[in-house]
Amino acid sequence: MGDEKVLLNAGYKKYTGHEIDVYFHPGKCTHAANCIKYLPSTFNMNRKPWILPNVALREDVKRVISTCPSEALTFIEKNDSFDL
Length: 84
What we know:
This protein is α+β, with helices and mostly antiparallel strands.
């Protein structure tokens, strides 16, 4: 996890979701393929955009991102609270 401005300035691309935003840095990726192996519904290189944060549970997206050995993937969770 990180600060969005810092991530974007560092070269990460943002993939917006309802509950979680996913950030990917192609220059850091070592192609370990954990993301596409463990959560192909969210991470699929055969479509554009290749990352769809909304098609899986937030916890599953977080779990798979935590397995990225190169830190090419990271995320920022969105606040669940809202005003009534």
